[in-house]
Amino acid sequence: MIMMPLADLFIEEFSISVGEFSLLISSYGIAAFFSSLCGVFLLDKFNRRKSLMFIYSGFLVGTTLCGIAPDYETLLVIRFITGLFGGIIGALALSIISDVYKFKERGQAIGALMAAFSAAAALGVPFGFYFATEFSWRFPFFFIAGIALVIWIIAYLKFPPIEINREEVVDYAPFELLQKIVTNKNILNALLLGFVVVFGHFLIIPFITPYMTNNVGFEDKDITYIYLVGGLLTVVTAPIIGKLTDKYGVNPVFYIVMIISFVPVVWLTNLGPVTIPYALVVTTLFFVFGSGRMLPPQSLITSAVGPDLRGSFMSLKSALQQLAIALAAAIGGIIISEDKDMKLVGYEWVGYSSIAVCIIAMILTPRIKIAKGN
User: Fold this and answer.
1) Quick one: fold of 4-367?
2) Which sign, positive or negative, has the C-alpha torsion 183, 360, 322, 152?
3) For 54-68, what is the mean pLDDT?
4) Which pTM value belongs to this model?
5) Predicted pLDDT of residue 26
6) CA-CA distance, 174 to 265, in Å (whole number)?
7) Residue 261 pLDDT
8) pLDDT tens-digit series, residues 205-254
9) How far is Cα 298 from Cα 289, in angstroms, rounded to an integer?
C-alpha cells in the first residue's frame, strides 16, 4: 500500500520503466505465494509463538534492508526476500485466531484483523506519499521497520503461549499431508471459496486508480482520499460485520452484504466524470461492502479443518489467494483496453464479471461444514 502511489518516485530514482516498477510490487506477491506453499508443510510443526517471532523478524530485517538498497536490482531481490516472510504472516495470524477463538466468536476476531488491513490501506497510501515526497522514498521503509520493531518487542514480552492439545496435532509426512487435503471435499470447497472471494474482489481493485484519474477526472493527489476515507470507515464497519456474523450466522450476513455490494460494484465500474465528493461516496461504499463481504466467509473457511491441519490449510489458502490476486489483475487487464484519449474501456465488464464470480461464492458457502475441534 505504501509503494503503489510512489511509482513516479521510483521510476525517476532508478531510471526504470513502468514494467520494471511493477516487478517491485509483484515480486513481493510472488515470494509470498511460494513461502505460503512451503508453510503448508512447516507451519504446524512449530510452536505458534516461536514461528511468529521468527517470521516477523525476517519481515522487519527485510523491510529495513529495502530502505538502504543502493540500486534497483538490489531492491528487487530484497523485496522478494521480504515477501517470503511477509507472505506467511497472514496465514499464521489466521491460524492463531482459529486456535484461540471458537467458531461462534471467530467473526468478531477476524473483523478486528480485517479492520487492521483497512487501517493499513487508509494510512499507508497518504503516509507513504507524504513521507516519500517530503524526505525520500527510503523513509517509508524505515518508518515501517521502526513500527515493526516496537511490535516485535511487545510481542516478545507480552504475546502469550497458545496452549494447543498436542494430541490433536499429527506430524504428517508431506505426501500424506497432501493426500489428507486433496481427498477432503470439505477442505477443497473451503479453499475454492477463499480463492473465488478474493478473485472476485481483486478484479476491481487494481484498476480503481487509473480509472479514477483517466475516466472520472481525479488528480494524482486526490487518489489518497479514496483509500483514506474508505479505509477509515471500513475500520469501523468491519468489526460490526464480524459481530453480526457471530450473532446471526455466516450465511445470512454473507448473502445480505454480498448482494448489497453489487450496487457499488456496478456504480463504480460505470462511473463517468463527477465531483470528488460524489466519487468518494461510490468508492467508500465499495470499500465498506467489498471488504465486508469477504469477512463472513473467512470465519467459515477457517473452521473447515481441525487443529491437526490448521496451519497447513491456512498456508495453502494464503498461497491460493496470492494466485487469485495475480490472475484477477491479469484477466482484468485483458478485458480492459485504452482508447485514444487514454480512458479505460471495458471496466464495466470487469464489474459484471466480478459479480458473476461472487455469485459462485454464494453457491459454495452452504457446502462447507464445520470440522471437529472448532
Assistant:
1) Growth Hormone; Chain: A; (1.20.1250)
2) negative
3) 92
4) 0.74
5) 73
6) 41
7) 95
8) 878 878 888 899 888 778 778 888 888 888 888 888 888 888 888 889 99
9) 15
Supply 286's cell numbers: 465499495
Identify the residue with better confidence: 197 or 181: 197
Evaluate if residue 167 carries a pLDDT over 60. no
Instruction: Compute the average pLDDT of residues 260-282.
Output: 94
Does the structure show a pLDDT above 60 at 165?
A: no
| All structural domains of the chain with their residue ranges | 4-367
How big is the chain by its Cα radius of gyration, in Å?
A: 20
Check if the beta carbon of residue 251 is closer than 8 Å to that of residue 366. yes
* 200-210: pLDDT as tens digits: 988 888 788 78
